[in-house]
Amino acid sequence: MRLAAEEWAPIGPEGGPAAPIAADPQHPGHILIFDSSVRESYDGGLTWRSEPAVAVEPLVITFAPSDSKIVYLGGDGGVLRSADGGATWRPTEGLPANIRVNGIAISPASPDIVYIAAGTGLFVSRSGGASWQQLSVDAEPYPFACVAVDPHDPSLIVTGTFSGNAKSKGGTFRSSDGGASWHRVGTDTGQFLEALVFDPSVSGTAYLISERGLLKSVDRGSTWSVASNGLSAGGSDPFDALISARPTLAIDASGANVLYATGVQGVYVSRDSAASWQLELGGYAFGVSVDVAGTVFASTAAFGITRSDNHGDSWSDVNSNRRMLTITSIVPDPLRSALYVTTGLCAGAFRLRGGEWTRLPLRDLSIVGQILVDGTGGLYVTTPSRIDHSTDEGMTWTDTAIAASGIGELARDPRSSIVYAATSNGVFQNTDGVHWELLRGSPANLSKMAVGSDGVLYTGTYADGVFRSTNGGITWTRCSGVKQGLPIRGIVVHPALSGNVVVITQSDSESSGIFFSNDSGKSWRKITITPEPTAEPITAAADATGHWFIATSAGVFESDASFNGWIRLGGPLATVLAADRDVLYLGTFGESVFALTLTPSARRRVVRSSIH
Question: What confidence tens digit (pLDDT) does each residue in 483-514 have?
């Protein structure tokens, strides 16, 4: 019997971002994060457990400073309250429908006094969320982005809006009477206020992220000065360094006088009250929080959840059983008994060998598109703007300086070490691992690339169909049997059957989106997956036994070399597929890699297909 869909096994790699992230202010090692669900750790991230699903898409999680059993979670849909440290949640009552909560501040005087900054206004509950009151703050029409309460003075509250300047109603506002009245202050903050925190060591001192960078106030928010020295790593201005989907600020309350700020370049640390900053952890950062012992926890695209026990000097991953990465390519390397994968936004590339995953030290941690084994012991890895090459299994990399933009897929000629690249400028060829040459006359605006065992080149465009070349790229002809006007999602040549190739496109009313040729692209047939004829095809793979695998919106299906029947393999929603011997690998959106062992007896069980 074929293995059932539930026998797909998650194999890693571990990691993936989480946002928001919150550390318990009273109990060391207790952390709450959100990825696909709320997860909780009581041992500093060494182990994690998933809590029941919540009805709100979280943007912020905040522990009550006076009683950390009380936690509030806010986001798209309202505010939830937990009375057991985050294990269970209940909705609060009285907020407007479809509210978006951007910030939460809890009074140090009582865990039942809660302020929220929302897109529709500033609200307070004095009953632990049993009811809410909208506060009168003249900031229309700007949404509120952040709010903070001074730990030394519960009557002092400061809030900020996403936009607004000295001539508008937005900006920063202060209440000195617990929210009863509000006054506009800090007209020097600029616009796009993003994160706000009070210093737990010095009353009246606060820090703010805005379009001006990192700002500091020592007079209860009345005036703000720029404190961004060191935040321009990579030549960017401070705002560009900090801005992200949700930049965050955190302060070590253990007395170490250390501040943390997150942004697109990573986690910045200041050890001198924001007089200077250093980038201590690279990669797009989603959140940072510090527990009562001074241990700092951060969420980044590159490293997932990571912690530092020495104020940011060094970091260690704490992602046990958190397989949350989006996979962009999977490449088996049978000669070295290895498996290479690349991941999405800023997470890089990994190698699996001997049951252990190793993160490859890439030069560029932007969006990694693909990794390719070149046949001579080398590797290529792509981003949208560059291609790097390694000759030592990915431990060091060299920029190959391709003069092209919009870099898509790479493909290697299985008869040689020649590598081809599909780009916006056309097809490039590399024969020595260093130099790229544009093949004049090749089509432009390309995304996909493949080379058959017979040397035929195939390249796919974004909307202009598929082209083939039978003379090494000197001339190209359009594959007339593949419908034009549809995005090309994949071109897969069969490793064992010369001339056999599958093209995956977006489906439409005339086609399922699967096209098959067994004569090197001279003619094409439409393929329908009979068990799921309306399923949207995503990607394909082939193995050395002559079988095809098609990943669709309804799972993975297997067929023989001529598409004479189908076996339903199921599995999660795929981004990529790769076959190696008797194992099929599947990359996912946010669930890392799954593997399925293929049993020989199952290949005799088929459901008839429809070939047109």
Answer: 888 889 999 999 989 999 999 998 777 777 99
Domain of 356, in residue numbers = 327-536
Task: Name residue 379's amino acid.
Answer: L
What is the tally of structural domains in the chain? Answer: 1
CA atoms within 13 A on the CB side of 94: 13
Supply the pLDDT for residue 550: 96
SS3 7: helix
Residue among 225, 103, 80 nearest 158 (CA): 103
> If DSSP codes are grouped into helix, strand and coil, which group holds residue 449?
strand
Please, are residues 380 and 410 in contact by the beta-carbon 8 Å criterion?
yes
Q: Residue 422 belongs to a domain with what CATH number?
A: 2.130.10.10
d(CA 194, CA 144): 9
pTM confidence score: 0.84
Closest CA to 280 of 257, 262, 304: 262
Q: Are strands 436-438 and 446-451 parallel, antiparallel or unpaired?
A: unpaired
User: Do residues 124 and 115 lie in contact, with contact meaning Cβ atoms separated by under 8 Å?
Assistant: yes
Alpha-carbon distance of 515 to 209, in angstroms, equals 52
CA atoms within 13 A on the CB side of 13: 31
Whether residue 377 lies inside any domain: the answer is yes
Q: Are 483 and 507 in contact (CB under 8 A)?
A: no
Tokens of 297: 């926890």
